[in-house]
Amino acid sequence: MKTFPMFLQMAGRCVVIAGGGEQAAQKARLMLKTEARLRLVAYDLEPELAGLVASGRAEQVREATVEAFAGAALVFIATGDAARDTALHAMAKAAGCLVNVVDRPDLCDAVTPSIVDRDPVVVAIGTEGNAPVLGRQIKTQIEQLLEPNLGGLAALAGRMRSTVAGAVPQAQRRALWDWVFAGPVRAAHARGGEREAARMLKDAIARGQAPGETGQGHIALVGAGPGARDLLTLRAVQRLQQADVIFYDRLVDPAVMELARRDAQRIYVGKTLGAHEWPQERIDAVIIAAARQGQRVVRLKSGDPSLFGRAEEELRAAHAAGIPVEIIPGVTAASAAAASLGRAMTERGATDHLILATATARDGVAAPDIAAMARPGATLALYMAVRQLPRIRADLLAAGWPETTEVEAVASASSAQEVQCRCILGDMDRALAGLANPAIIFVRFAKDAVAVPQTPHLQVVSA
Ligand code: SAH
């Protein structure tokens, strides 16, 4: 490391900014986040800086002298004039200050990092000038990871520290703070439930330990999205990072699993097609058992957990066992497939219905009647339909939908193996014959299309 990150004490100290234009104003904006007093060394100040002086937030010193810099915790030199900057740098050094000269790394004792500000939580990112764009990307990633009001929770923790030290035995303190920052307190706070979060923390302090220690687990049914890991929601990532144990299945991409905490236990509960080593009742039983041990359980499901994912059974099992359970929604396969096609699922004036349907029923039950769902002006998004294509085509044609009805299919949407096809209903079996699971089939019924049954089931007998 050529430079070393440190947090400088700013409260009650003086920061000098030399310069009165936009460059100086940028540094002033940065320093206004701190509790430092600002001293602006310049004859003329642009309006924003003049406003700071008028409001008493900064003082102005017109004449640049060594004394003007004396005692400063930090000096920024930002006049926009190279020769003037060099002269001011010499004065600041003569006053013994730590100096940053804008755009002059050779004259800098200190450089400002990219900052993610969740005051009092502050993340500083630097690349020593090697890769500023990478630095900004990292900043964006961290911005997404840390909820906007996280600082409020850290400040609450700070206010409660001494109370916790008095009320919670040392052996339990670490677990208590883990629970606060990785569990339901943080989740409630992030949702805007500041009061609820404070109450949960105070209750735990009164009990002398985190609820997890008393065996209270938690289950989150988390939507993993269609595959691409950047299509997870921020909340899903948070739950993955909080989980003690993660139950996942076949369609969840390994890249998504990498977002979990390193030491989280990962348990595969997938069904390789046809095999039933993990029947639903067994999945329900193991997630409940894990939560009963006080673990934070994530049941990761592809797409959105509430769509064709048997979430209802898992919710019922959790309710019956009295275990708190929540759903974290996800991007469903149909949304990802439409995005891949670059086409909306609804279109003003043309498509006013969106039907999400499965083409497969459980064993022993009649297959869903796709023709009965079809109607003019509807987009039908079919899940689990790949093996049903001949039947779907035959049923729709028999119901009188035109051969030219538009069909689109996307397999493995959002993944590297993605495949797209476009065809018409009449040609669907042939065009989609090679399509691999998992896939979404869209059938778009034109608004002006009329279904004319080819084999009428009803005979109208006139009286
Ligand atoms: N809960 C999931 C659906 C689970 S059912 C969701 O909301 O997306 C499984 C079906 O989802 C598959 O048979 C397929 O039809 C669809 N599917 C899941 N992932 C997919 C993907 N990446 N691309 C296309 N279809 C997908």
From TrEMBL:
CDD domains: SUMT (cd11642). Residues 219-427 form the Tetrapyrrole methylase domain. Transmembrane segments: none annotated. Residues 149-205 form the Sirohaem synthase dimerisation domain. GO terms for biological process: methylation. Pathway: Porphyrin-containing compound metabolism; siroheme biosynthesis; sirohydrochlorin from precorrin-2: step 1/1; Porphyrin-containing compound metabolism; siroheme biosynthesis; precorrin-2 from uroporphyrinogen III: step 1/1. Keywords: Cobalamin biosynthesis, Lyase, Methyltransferase, Multifunctional enzyme, NAD, Oxidoreductase, Porphyrin biosynthesis, S-adenosyl-L-methionine, Transferase. InterPro entries: 4pyrrol_Mease, 4pyrrol_Methylase_sf, 4pyrrole_Mease_sub1, 4pyrrole_Mease_sub2, CobA/CysG_C, NAD(P)-bd_dom_sf, Siro_Cobalamin_biosynth, Sirohaem_synt_dimer_dom_sf. The keyword Ribonucleoprotein does not apply. The keyword Hydrolase does not apply. It catalyses: precorrin-2 + NAD(+) = sirohydrochlorin + NADH + 2 H(+). Its EC number is 1.3.1.76, 2.1.1.107, 4.99.1.4. GO terms for molecular function: precorrin-2 dehydrogenase activity; sirohydrochlorin ferrochelatase activity; uroporphyrin-III C-methyltransferase activity. Gene3D superfamilies: Cobalt-precorrin-4 Transmethylase, Domain 1, Methyltransferase, Cobalt-precorrin-4 Transmethylase, Domain 2, NAD(P)-binding Rossmann-like Domain, Sirohaem synthase, dimerisation domain, Siroheme synthase, domain 2. Belongs to the precorrin methyltransferase family. This is Siroheme synthase CysG. It comes from Pararhodobacter zhoushanensis.
